[in-house]
Design a protein that fits this description.
about 280 residues, alpha/beta, 8-stranded mixed sheet, 12 helices, 8 strands, about 35% helix, about 15% strand
């Protein structure tokens, strides 16, 4: 839970994303912008801005301690939320082992990041593609290379990040899990901030601690944790969702609970009927 993260990991919780049924319509922040989950991603966007007031973020790495924590879902929806605020966002799928950004955004993966390393020009000619979401461009992973860690840590990758930062306001990078491979640890010191996605009930606390230690040893700037796929009915999360957001969540998911306020008019007092005087 949120208290466990702050107590054991020593980093703040920047966002809590509720459990939701995702469809083939694309990121929920774009397909259902009025949903509570989309609102949670907009709240995460705001918290990230407050977490780096002195040094505005131009590059953001999103990773997780272990697989199936939902880092790709957070990467795609946060990029949409950033683009909806009027920024030019470049989303890069740097997971060259199990890429999934192209599936979330329903794009082809014929040409992407891995193809830049073998072409003469270091610039992403044809690899960066516009999407139906205004302000959001995406670079998919491309074909899977045999040496992902070497490519991620190369000077050409660093040059590509610098080029993208000149073209976009924010560069969001979806990377592999920290404890599975070394790709995220190699790339983390080269970006302005790192978000760690944790899934309550799935992510192990020991793996989370090791991921934080490994990122810090490499000099990464860990902004905070995003709790993903949170079951709001659990008692430990009720405190964090009281008030407007929790009420909005219940109202959105169960319209039958909406109560209409009846407007009643005060009754007029009847005057006593006086008897006729004799």
């Amino acid at each position: 839970g949120p208290d466990d993260v702050t107590r054991h990991l020593g980093i703040p919780v920047l966002g809590l994303i509720a459990r939701a049924e995702f469809t083939d319509e694309g990121p929920i922040a774009a397909a259902q912008p009025r949903s509570p989950v989309a609102e949670a991603f907009r709240a995460l966007r705001t918290n990230i801005q407050y977490a780096s007031v002195d040094y505005p973020l131009q590059s953001l790495l999103i990773t997780s301690p272990s697989p199936k924590d939902g880092k790709t879902t957070v990467s795609a929806n946060l990029s949409v939320a950033l683009a909806q605020s009027g920024r030019q966002v470049a989303l890069v799928d740097a997971d060259l082992r199990r890429p999934a950004i192209h599936k979330r955004l329903r794009l082809s993966n014929r040409k992407g990041l891995s193809d830049i390393f073998v072409q003469p020009s270091p610039y992403p000619d044809g690899a960066m593609r516009e999407t139906a979401i205004p302000g959001l461009s995406v670079m998919t992973s491309g074909s899977l290379p045999p040496n992902p860690a070497e490519l991620i840590g190369s000077e050409r990758m660093l040059g590509l990040l610098r080029h993208l930062q000149q073209q976009a306001d924010v560069v969001v990078i979806d990377s592999p899990p920290v404890m599975a491979v070394t790709d995220a640890a190699v790339l983390a010191p080269r970006v302005d901030g790192v978000l760690l996605v944790v899934r309550p009930g799935t992510t192990k606390l020991g793996a989370s601690k090791q991921a934080v230690e490994q990122l810090r040893r490499g000099g990464a700037n860990i902004l905070g944790v995003v709790l993903n796929d949170v079951e709001l009915k659990r008692g430990r999360y009720n405190y964090y969702y009281k008030g407007y957001y929790y009420a909005y969540y219940n109202q959105y998911n169960d319209p039958s609970k909406r109560k209409r306020r009846r407007i009643t008019r005060p009754r007029r007092k009847e005057q006593p009927v006086k008897a006729d005087q004799p």
